[in-house]
Design brief:
The two termini are 41 Å apart. The protein has a two-stranded antiparallel sheet with strand order 1-2. The protein has a two-stranded antiparallel ribbon with strand order 3-4. It contains 22 helices and 6 strands. The protein is mainly alpha-helical and 637 residues long.
Length: 637
């Protein structure tokens, strides 16, 4: 009865989502029509009066001002309706929940595509079946979450229309040329997703399986383009383009979309969404592992958690670099915005962000060290873990050290200045770049150890390969630390460029050492099978910590990205004249972010429960059929 009720509830949610998506083009067109009613005669009576010329605020090109100026709002019920609660907080909640679920449903289909492809190309039929079933389980969860994402999207639009009608009306008038594309792509994604899910059994074998896999590629292309269009709204609000100083649209929609921050936002969002999605699925697997009653269930969910963690961390490793690129572009666009972010009003929030990033990498390494316990022969690496802990802690402490902190006059006098005479040296960007690159390089080394945990290389050049890898990692550490120290002796404008060789060193460890290690382990002697499920419960708590920290950090970065505009709806174009046009305190922001995280995890547990109804697990092959831990291709992914 529970399974039947769950399926009925799922069908109702899917129907509601589809109806909402079909009505979306009508909903988003209403504010545009309203703006059109107030537009000047030069806009409404085309051909009767010549358009005025305007100059693009970013591209500096001239064009005809065919749009209305940005409205000058006033504090009152017309522009800022009130409902006995701070409107910005309501919008904050609706936006953050939609972002969480949108990120999840974007990431999981990409995981499904990768896992299904691994199942198609593997020659082991038992493993192919396991991979295929795992991808199906993932997409089932994603389908349920997709319905909630659509519902939350409708709630978000309703919130904008109700609480910020003038602001949303202006934005929708600017993006009117692509509104219909945005809505049609929603419908296309929905249709592709449902066909992809419900056609799974019919397309399990042969050529039809490749068609099914191709559908996952189409699904992810549509989802990625949707994310790019959504990011164009954020980019326009932070760094407007395609409009003149009055906010009038100049006719080039590509300029409106392709703002100064659009490309770095896209890259940062893709990597962040993938890492977040992997963390959420890994936490789901950890919860199921802890609740399992049989060894078979524990083995299945242990393997599932590892796959999700490995995919998520694969995108987590380059994420800090994408964040640096985004911050660099913010500085390049408006230096004052960069100062507000990194050295002014919002600087303390980046210390909190650095703390969360450190927790992410520490949790990942701890999980990998615990996972070595599933493999015979991995004991040889246990005695080196204490050195990795020391390196990680040193890098972490440097990374989270603030350059300056808020102090009372008495504290300022006691310390002898705004900066601590010793610790203040670790707060500059040169030291922080070194700290995070050391952390990432150590994480890569932990993965390499895990990949060879129960194996002994049999290639003729294994001794030379081990020496070369050891020297390579040692040189990488020396180069990263040396560049961090050298940054203190050169001007700041030159020091910024040192981040490039540091990043190149870290990525060299990732892209050179992984393939080399895989080549060394080809045909390696197995010291025993990976005993899935034979892992400490502490490792599962690490996965839950990984997911929770990433969820919290996503909320924090959303708040930072929105707050950098200060009292502007659209930076330097449309001012926010509401009574809430101020920056919240760090304490209030932390409480609000925590509430969003708590609400998301409570709701996602419901999604997991609903998606697990009727879920079947592929039988776990016997140990003899899984030499070396069958899912090993994922470890090298």
């Amino acid at each position: 009865m529970g399974r039947v009720a769950g399926k009925k509830l799922f069908s109702i949610m899917a129907l509601v989502a589809m109806v909402g998506l079909l009505l979306l083009p009508i909903a988003v067109s209403l504010p545009s029509l309203a703006i059109g009613a107030d537009a000047p005669d030069a806009v409404k009576k085309e051909g009767e009066q010549k358009y005025e010329k305007g100059r693009d605020v970013y591209y500096k090109t001239e064009g005809l001002a065919i749009g209305a100026p940005a409205p000058k709002t006033v504090d009152g019920p017309k522009d800022y309706p009130r409902y006995n609660f701070e409107s910005r907080v309501l919008l904050w909640f609706a936006n953050q929940q939609h972002l969480y679920y949108g990120s999840f449903v974007l990431a999981v289909p990409i995981f499904c595509m990768v896992i299904e492809f691994m199942g198609v190309v593997t020659k082991d039929k038992a493993m192919a079946k396991r991979y295929d079933q795992l991808a199906y389980d993932f997409i089932k969860i994603s389908l349920t979450a997709y319905s909630l994402t659509a519902i939350l999207g409708g709630i978000l639009i309703f919130t904008f229309l109700t609480l910020y009608p003038a602001f949303f009306g202006y934005l929708s008038s600017i993006f009117r040329p692509v509104m219909h594309i945005y809505a049609l792509m929603f419908v296309a994604e929905s249709g592709t997703l449902y066909i992809y899910y419900y056609g799974w059994d019919k397309m399990r074998d042969g050529f039809l399986k490749w068609i099914h896999l191709s559908m996952s590629v189409i699904l992810n292309v549509i989802g990625t383009l949707l994310m790019f269009l959504a990011n164009s709204w954020i980019g326009f609000m932070m760094s407007p383009a395609g409009v003149d100083e009055q906010g009038r649209f100049l006719g080039n929609i590509w300029h409106v979309i392709h703002t100064a921050l659009w490309n770095p936002l896209n890259v940062h969002r893709i990597l962040g969404n993938m890492a977040f999605g992997g963390g959420v699925v890994a936490a789901y697997a950890a919860y199921k592992f802890l609740a399992s009653k049989t060894d078979e269930d524990r083995a299945h969910y242990d393997w599932m958690g590892y796959i999700a963690m490995a995919l998520g961390v694969a995108f987590l490793i380059p994420l800090p670099f994408a964040g640096y690129w985004l911050m660099r572009e913010v500085y390049a666009y408006r230096q004052q915005m960069g100062i507000t972010l990194m050295g002014g009003l919002l600087a303390w929030l980046f210390i909190i962000q650095a703390t969360m990033i450190g927790i992410l990498f520490l949790s990942t390494n701890y999980y990998l060290w615990q996972a070595l316990g599933r493999m015979r022969g991995a004991e040889k690496y246990q005695r080196y873990i204490k050195y990795l802990v020391f390196i990680l802690c040193c890098g972490y402490l440097v990374f989270i050290t603030p350059h300056t902190i808020v102090m009372t006059p008495a504290e300022l006098k006691a310390m002898g200045g705004q900066q601590h005479p010793v610790l203040g040296n670790y707060g500059v960007m040169s030291a922080k770049n070194g700290g995070i690159n050391v952390i990432i390089t150590t994480t890569i080394l932990s993965f390499v150890w895990y990949m060879r945990g129960n194996k002994v290389s049999t290639v003729s050049w294994s001794k030379f390969g081990n020496i070369f890898m050891g020297v390579f990692f040692a040189c990488a550490y020396v180069n990263i630390i040396w560049l961090a120290i050298y940054g203190y002796y050169i001007p700041a404008n030159v020091r910024v460029g040192l981040s490039v060789p540091q990043v190149a060193t870290t990525l060299s460890c990732l892209f050179f050492m992984f393939p080399l290690n895989s080549a060394m382990m080809k045909g390696a002697k197995q010291m025993g099978a990976i005993e899935w499920g034979k892992i400490s419960v502490r490792s599962q708590y690490a996965l839950i910590m990984l997911a929770t920290a990433f969820t919290w950090m996503m909320g924090l970065m959303g708040y930072i990205r929105s707050s950098v505009r200060l009292f502007w709806h659209v930076n330097e174009i449309m001012r926010d004249n509401s009574p809430w046009a101020y920056t919240h305190t760090v304490g209030f922001a932390a409480n609000m972010i925590s509430f969003n995280v708590l609400f998301f995890w409570v709701s996602i547990l419901f999604v997991f429960w609903l998606g697990s109804l009727g879920m079947k697990k592929a039988p776990v092959p016997a140990k003899a059929e899984v030499p070396g831990g069958a899912p090993q291709p994922a470890a090298g992914h």
